[in-house]
Design goal:
The structure is a homodimer of 372-residue chains. Chain A is an alpha+beta fold and 372 residues long. Chain A has seven helices and 26 strands. In chain A, α1 runs antiparallel to α2 and α6 packs antiparallel against α7. At the A-B interface, α2, β9, α6 and β21 of A face α2, β9, α6 and β21 of B.
């Protein structure tokens, strides 16, 4: 194998595939990048048996061939080379030689035949959206994915296509995030639960651009396909929450408030609520809605905190307890200036929505307040 | 105690003193900030029994008094309040009340009489320099301070004033950094070894400005004095290295090289040299100087690396082994474009100097190369 390529080009490819490299593994081959030539292209592949990433670039192939090299070492060396042409080849001793101006590096290689093959996917259903739209959908939901391995289905995000509308849903038993958008092209109805870890990696690889990305689904696998790059992942098996049934459609109490103002209140008060020695869940903050104002308060052994904010209110007065972290997560996900917060009773879920956009719904379950 | 102050003002004071707060202590009072009013000023003090920091600001004192409050909690709350006037007072239950717009926080306080008194310093000798000059001197030497507690004197920097010249020296047994500057004002000769930890904190507190800072020394203590802020520290006891005797004054081999070019070579090669499973000390990089070029190379089980750089050389050819990290530290400390690297024999120390400035000298001891 012998190729000549520009640093920029190959570094972009390496940066994408390196995210699929296994970090803790007893199989050294999974810590490697498979490099394969194919006419005037090379394909870089990584696969940790859960996520597989392929990236193809054009380059000057002097001699066809393939090899596997440790991903971290290879990427670090390429990253630090000058911005110019790099010669990469495998020598007679089976070492990968990287040559660039006065620098010559030789790295041990592994047998490309031992690199596990990526699963072949027979795409049954697919949609195409813009990469920045997918980025936005992931950002607004992924933080609500469960980290509890006991119910694996909730460690992923539901991608549901229904009547040409894509909804992405994450839920962890305490809150739920739902972002939806209409698709430009006619599509079949289908759904799949994609692991949160995969979406995190996809999110790092896709760009904040209008470039398209195709999401295809087979029985057990999903495929994210961009111009030069393919990401293969398993999909999660099991019954996802019937989310439409749990989101309340009416409210008893509603406030409309500047997002930054109430975010600041919750940030300050969580200094007190989360500093308590015991678990924070035991010290919810109390939210009181009265005509024209909301009071958020909290008392524990660290101290005493009260935040009063004048807001526009509708409906009944209310008192309920919440984990402030769950509110803060939603405020970070909402880009608009004003939010509605809708309450039922003190024991029913509360919704946070943007005033300007109705494509995002965030639901929080209350915590029962201790009777003092 | 009751004061009214602007957030900006008190936050600046808190940010400075909070660096003196004990992090791991069994005495909760040392995790506190002592707040004391004095006419129309308040003084904030922290002291971890090694470094003491005082900061004085003007504010509207409604009621004289003093208290101690947990530093982290107090600083976090103030930091997150809006940019406006803050009311701070101690209520009848001995809680510190912080009031600002709709926010009201009450924090537990501690008894100010139990706060340890900072040592009184009888300054015997002192100098005054600009804060940015001190910052520069600390930055260029502190990384060479020893972290080995077995020889405590080398965990500090020597400050030596001799014939109106200030020299700051750090040494750790493998390399030495020396930065010197002439003082504007006549000064006595004296010297003191200031703990590296103190200098790190001083460095964070002083600004990158021409504002003056006075460094005063008594028998056991040193005092850094700025307009609103004083830092007290113990000085280290013992005999520092007679550094003038160990810095070679002649060279046998000298190269002159663009700093960034050689820095890049050492950065890349240290990817290989420091990746070896065994301790990096056992895998020095080999430096070869021949007429018109320098070759840096390294071989271990990870791979093989060679960097060739065309440079201007003087004197004999040379082969010697070094830890590349020590070179990299010096390149980061030197702001100029070109450096001299001066070698003696393969077993004598090597010097790195700026070509443009002679106020900085950095010395590295070689590592004996293994005979293959």
């Amino acid at each position: 194998m012998k190729i000549v390529c520009y640093k920029d080009n190959i570094l972009k490819a390496i940066n994408s595939v390196v995210k699929g490299v296994a970090s803790k593994t007893t199989m050294p081959i999974l810590e490697g990048i498979l490099i394969q030539t194919n006419d005037d292209e090379i394909k870089l592949t990584t696969y940790d048996l859960e996520i597989g990433i392929e990236y193809v670039i054009k380059c000057d192939v002097k001699e066809q061939g393939s090899t596997v090299v440790n991903a971290i070492m290879f990427s670090e060396i390429i990253r630090k080379l000058p911005d110019t042409e790099i010669n990469i080849s495998v020598n007679n001793n089976n070492l990968l030689e990287i040559e660039c101006e006065g620098a010559l590096y030789k790295l041990a290689t592994m047998n490309p035949d031992e690199f596990p093959e990526l699963p072949k996917i027979e795409v049954e259903n697919s949609i195409e959206i813009e990469q920045n739209a997918l980025k936005n959908m992931i950002r607004k939901t992924i933080f609500a994915v469960s980290s509890e391995e006991s119910r694996p289905i909730f460690t992923g995000c539901l991608f549901e296509i229904e009547n040409n509308k894509l909804s992405v849903v994450a839920v962890d038993g305490f809150r739920l995030a739902l972002r939806s958008m209409y698709l430009n092209k006619q599509s079949n109805n289908f759904s799949a639960v994609i692991p949160g870890r995969t979406l995190n990696e996809v999110n790092k690889i896709i760009s904040d651009s209008f470039e398209p990305i195709k999401i295809g689904v087979s029985k057990n696998q999903a495929l994210f396909e961009m111009e030069n790059c393919k990401i293969v992942t398993r999909i999660l098996d099991g019954e996802f929450l019937n989310y439409k049934n749990v989101i309340p459609s009416n409210w008893e109490t509603r406030i409309r408030v500047n997002k930054n103002s109430i975010q600041n209140c919750f940030e300050r008060i969580s200094l007190i609520s989360s500093s308590a020695v015991e678990k924070e869940k035991k010290y919810p903050v109390k939210v009181n809605v009265d005509i024209g104002k909301v009071v958020i308060s909290c008392t524990n052994q660290t101290g005493d905190a009260k935040e009063e904010l004048y807001v526009s209110t509708e409906g009944k007065n209310l008192e309920a307890g919440f984990n402030p972290k769950y509110f803060l997560d939603s405020f970070k996900a909402i880009d608009d200036e004003e939010v509605y917060i809708e309450f039922g009773s003190s024991i029913s879920p509360c919704l946070v929505k943007s005033v300007e956009n109705n494509d995002y719904t965030y639901m929080i379950l209350p915590i029962r307040l201790k009777e003092d």
